[in-house]
Amino acid sequence: MALRMQRIDWPRFQSDDRGPRCASAALVMVSLAFVLAACAPRTAGMEARKEADDRFRRTTSLVSFDQAKQAFEAGDLAKARKDIEAAIARSDREARYWSLLGRVELESKRLERAIDAFAKSIECDPALAEPYYYRGIVYQRWSDSEKAIADYLKASELAPERAAYLLAAAEIMVAERRLDDARMLLLPKLAYFEHNASMHELLGDVASLQGEYAAAARSYERALVIDTEAPLLAEKLVSSYFAAGEWQRALEAARRGREALAKAPTGRRVQVPNDLYRFEGRSLARLGRMAEARQVFVEETRAYPEDAEAWRDLATASLTSGDIARAEQAAERLVVLAPQDARAFTLRGIVAERRNNFGEAVRWHRLAVARGPEQVEALIGLGLALEKSGKQSEALEVLAKAMKLDPASTLARRAFAGVSTD
Fold it and tell me: Which residues, at least 6 apart from 349, have a Cβ–Cβ distance to it below 8 Å?
């Protein structure tokens, strides 16, 4: 079979009346198409190289960021600053990088630089909570509480699961005695943070400052169940029970606190907090168990020999239980520790009266009045001692002054009436 060749007629550029201009234009268009086709791969390659370069810069910046975090957590602020600045130099739109730089500057006490870094972080990502929180810390250090609260609340809004952000705002309110504001801020979040000990503790602080001691105790109870080792929490609970007049509960809580400390790991030095001694002893005294109270105060003075209140409690408990020798010892120590406290000299005068040394008692009470001329208790002590030493007219004069200073004082009226009828 013979093969027939098909003729292909290629289009010709016709030379019409438009002449060679049309042909030239067509040739230009064809050439341009070839040029564009040749350039396309080259442009795509440049973009690919740019993307690869960006990826490399982001990757290396992330390595520097991780190194900076590790250095920061280890406390090496100089290395942390160097590494995070290197990360920012490679990728300056990462909010986390600026926030970490701000934290480094904050820890270095370069607060102006910290503020600038946190502002840059917020600019890069307004939805990141961390820089708001740490900028709030800076404002708090500058005593700009309104800006600090605003930043803490913004951080809490962006990261509602972070209790620390909310608590930071509430703590400023408590410090400024904006107690109702703090309560209204915390209560709606209480169900969400039901298992957060700090939330319950802060609500207890608010209630305590508002004089609602029973409510404070309930909040501290819940906090202590959640975190049995929270610092000062056991003492706050005992103090609230005592202030609420729940002395048996205060006694039990104080003893639980001491027992928990006694079970500390072997080799660990344990010191019972002063308040646990104090409120255990005072609760026993209020319950009429004075001998037990005296023993607790003896332990307290051994543990805290420079604490004047401990010696005052011991002197009072010893007087009440009839241990005059110990009362005298405690009162003398109290006078040494609190030489300007009128109450110390009043106690020492009462001890002298119990020993029937009325002349000495008057001397001690005069010293008390010299230190507290407007203190009703000091005047009553002096008036009674004067009466017992046979100076009735002076006693009435002193007691009359006590009643004038505090007309509502039942003790002053009774003392005056007693001396008047003698």
Answer: 360, 361, 362, 363, 364, 365, 368, 381, 382, 385
